[in-house]
Amino acid sequence: MNGAAAGYGLLDLLEYSWRRELEAGKAAGQLEVEPSLAQAVAMALGEQSRVLAVGGVAEKWPACVIVGLARIAAEACSVPFSAATSFWPAWHRAAGLRPSGQSARQWGSGFLAALGALRLQPAGPTADDAVLAHAAPPQDQNEAGSADGGDHLRLDPFGGGVTLTDTASGQARAALPEEVADDGGRLLAFDENGALADGALPAEAVWVLHPASAELRSDAPLRILLTSTLPLTWRDWRLMQLDLREASWLALSDAEADADGGRRVVRGRTKPVLHTGLPIPGVTTVTGRPVFASPPEVLLPPGQVTFRVEARMPESGTVLASVAATGDAWRPDVLWRNVKRPLLGEVTVTVTPGLRRTMVLAEGLRVTSHPAPRLTSARGLQPTEVMISARPGMTVFPAAIVYQQETVTRAITCVAGPVVQRLAVTPPHIRLRVDPEPGSGGTATGWHHAGPLRLTHDDLWRGGLLRVDLPGVAVSPSITVTTGDTRAEPVQVLDPMRDGRYPLRRILDTVTIHGDAKLIITIAGAGVTIATVSGTTAANDPWTMT
After folding, report:
1. Which residues contact 418 (CB under 8 A, 6 or more apart)?
2. Is residue 165 classed exposed, middle or buried when 0-12, 13-18 and 19+ CB atoms within 10 A define those classes?
3. How far apart, in Å, are the Cα atoms of 300 and each of 121, 183, 303, 350, 429?
4. Is the dihedral angle over the CA atoms 53, 69, 86, 84 positive or is it negative?
């Protein structure tokens, strides 16, 4: 395995676990990362940036970009931590890259893009500030939750209940509610491993234990992952596992709650957040901007700070809604409660202080195409039919479109009241390209969709990885290689790698022996030729050179 391939595997291995910790509110400086591992990650990221470019690396491994760059920056700033120290030379050395101002800007932009991919807010106005904020070591590892509490109080969520450990003897015993709860009304939280989550709650799966007489409440709908049983001594209590990634606080609503409701803050939610959901697949503005089918949710951090939340149409200046509220009193549906629906066109949401975001809405718009995805045909893509619908109050023209083989995108017009919005509709379709061989320094080909991709024997000698983009298909299919005339029997099956790409070198010997070939995938029981291989390469064959 060459260095590039090994680095690829290392990044895949680390991405999931680091992503979870970053999304839970931890900074890169708080993670346990050995210096040698940080160096290996930096080198792997540098290698992959030669293949995918910095933007592609940040898109594929955002957590590795954040942790790798921040930890190298931390070492460069050394101890005591100095934010004034320049870390870019150290990063380029660690990543094996030639230092330049342009490269520093690219990696700075990549770091910000990685933060955005994980829904993390950058600290400070520049990329350097954002990197240094993640590089800084934690100020105090022993925050609101004391070390003693975390050490001796644990949860067995599957019938064992809460246990107390004597720190002197190390002996554990079952705990009673009155031993660990304040007046029977305390909200107890534990992480996935059963450790007490005192102070701020992690923005991930959390076990919550509370009196059955009280109801849980939050600023976002609570997603229950599991409910579990407790020992008989806890019969008046409830235990469930919640997903807190969408919430900024959690509290009990009962008569015994404190004046502030005993609210527990979720880490990483100290600033306003805008939740947009996913854009409408295949629908953009005519200039390529995404379009959303529902208005965004504004989530405010808990507390008594007053925020002004406003939504307006930037082109006309029309104010749709303007609400002032504290984080504790805020409910996400308040902003849109009295707004005339459906919403269409550009809408700017501003939270003062905090954020400003402009997005394009076509509320309730639905697009259905058949077949989906469109596959290749002789002259382009399969013909397809698209049906477009909208909620009452919005008109769409045309409401049905037929796409011929050579047509990829068609325009539609949406009207809601005085607002007219032109949109582009591109039904999901197959795309193919060849990524360069890892470590080769080459560049990827452009995306291809107009008929089968035409490859030559020379392309196989150069190698590379065939990428087949099939929207809506969860598992990459195997490629059947056939040679000779029509109805030829398969001579090889090419399976995808872990990342879904297909190594072209693996069919080189087959094509050399059998001649021209077709690459076929089967979708919904039908075989489709996605690529052909033709041409000769005797001049490149080292065994035939004179």
Report:
1. none
2. middle
3. 14, 30, 9, 12, 39
4. positive
Distances (CA, A) of 292 to 245, 358, 456: 21, 11, 42
| Residue 156 burial by Cβ neighbours in a 10 Å radius (0-12, 13-18, 19+) | middle
pLDDT tens for residues 75-100? 776 543 444 457 888 899 889 888 88
pLDDT in tens, 207-219: 999 888 888 888 7
Report whether 202 contacts 24 (CB < 8 A). yes
Pull the structure tokens for residue 434: 């060849």
The DSSP-derived string for 79-99 is: SS--TTS--HHHHHHHHT---
DSSP codes, 127-147:
HHHHHHHHHSPPS-SS-SS-H
- Residue 461 contacts residue 506 (beta carbons within 8 Å): no
What is the SS3 string spanning 468-498?
EECCCCCCCCCEEEEECCCCCCEEEEECCCC
Q: Which residues contact 499 (CB under 8 A, 6 or more apart)?
A: 8, 12
Residues comprising the chain, all counted: 546
Structure tokens at 362: 């076509």
d(CA 336, CA 538): 68
Domain residue limits, the chain: 3-135, 147-265, 272-372+380-426, 431-540
Identity of residue 504: L
Cα–Cα dist 479/518, whole Å = 10
Tell whether pTM > 0.85.
no
> Which helix or strand (DSSP H or E) is residue 401 part of?
strand 400-403
Task: Please check whether residue 309 is in contact with residue 350, taking contact to mean a CB–CB distance below 8 angstroms.
Answer: yes
pLDDT in tens, 426-473: 999 999 999 888 777 778 888 999 889 999 988 888 888 999 988 888
- Rounded alpha-carbon distances, angstroms, from residue 146 to 157, 173, 226, 263: 22, 20, 28, 18
